[in-house]
Amino acid sequence: xxVEPTPASAxxxxxxxxxxxxxxxxxxxxxxxxxxxxxxxxxxxxxxxxEQKVLNTGVEVIxxxxxxxxxxxxxxxxxxxxxxxxxxxxxxxxxxTSSTIACIFQSVRIPIVLVALQPQQAMDYENATTHIQLLxxxxxxxxxxxxxAARLGRPVPPMIIGTLHDDPEADALIRDYCQxxxxxxxxxxxxxxxxxxxxxxxxxxxxxxxxxxxxxGCHLVQVEVDDIFRHYQAAGREQIDxxxxxxxxxxxxxxxxxxxxxxxxxxxxxxxxxxxxxALNEFIKEKQLDxxxxxxxxxxxxxxxxxxxxxxxxxxxxxxxxxxxxxxxxLKTCIAMLIMDRLEMGGSFAEFHPVDFREGFVLVGHDGxxxxxxxxxKPILRSLKKYHGxxxxxxxxxxxxxxxxxxxxxxxxxxxxKFKFVIAEGESREGPIPATGNTNTxxxxxxxxxxxxxxxxxxxxxxxxxLGLGHRAETIRTIGDxxxxxSVIINTGL
Length: 494
What we know:
Radius of gyration: 25 Å
Structural class: alpha/beta
CATH class of the largest domain: Alpha Beta
Strand content: 15-25%
Number of helices: 16
Number of domains: 2
Number of strands: 19
CATH topology of the largest domain: L-fucose Isomerase, Chain A, domain 3
Helix content: 25-40%
Distance between the termini: 26 Å
């Protein structure tokens, strides 16, 4: 499920376009070509159709042609290694011996996906020939390839099995793997800013920057609040007014309800949010960042405190443009948010709030910033007289997620130091939420809210997680498999 933007959020363009480099390698059996004239040309036609399906997802494609012998496999291996790929599709256009792939399995360390899409849903058995069978023999070598991968000590590649035409399930898997390639490219090229410190020693959120690089490939950039403050001080009137207009275009600013901490957005809070937004925008361009995890308090009453406590609105707008920003300096959840964003699910900063035992749901959300592309309708800004549990005051974002399927991704760390994905699927349903200037949604989970929460908590997750639209647990687990990360999908059965 790709996020469908609201009229306001549709104006939010990605800071960087989604991109990745995907290879296609056909495999076949050289002995067939002199035996069955015309077969090779027909197999290349199949590859052309598959290549177009991949191109339609928006990724860059490199077609390596056909590996049909061990000698050819060794020649192509070097080309594949030099291509800088994020993912390789092996197009099983007919039977191929495992010698056509073994050296590639052994040497290539990027994810490989085996694709077996036969042109016919079923052969016309009364008129079938050996030539026609070979043209539809896409699955024949799959067990041989799987066995050889395992014997070489490599992961058995995932497989797409189906038909080349009119197969929505196969087409959806092709899109999934291309989105996964986008995730992997983003992770290994990302520059994630780390600024300040974890909020009041939340011990579950501490992590090792080098471990993040070792696992995901991203680089952690150590940045200072002063780097933003320079741009905050230098913001011009024209820039600030443009941001104010953009903020008012994206957000509603209703009258307060019952919470005495809330009030209608004030001109002062709007001014500070806009000035901070200008500063953030210039700062991430200067540092060439792709995400930021931050927390800083500064001296009470200082201009620096005014800045650091008014990043929420600019943070939300940047997150909606594909730049995940994570408060409380939660680096792990920043990575989880980036993964969800690159899967075009949204990816909001979230935690669990009170349970509704009457209707059987739990409020899922967080104070502060959010991925506004997943909001139901126009998100709201409220001025808060104080931020609960944190210093400062100012504008805060409030909305409910779009109704429908949701997925949660928690990135936690185990006693052995390794990362772990904790994943769950549920449903967001319409209904009232507290008008507190905090985002919340009504999260329903099977088999019931108590059992689900116990199962989630028992996996030792970080208390924050990324929240997105759609049911994509298996896709995220595949990303974990490719990265060598243990993944747990919470059981929603009885």
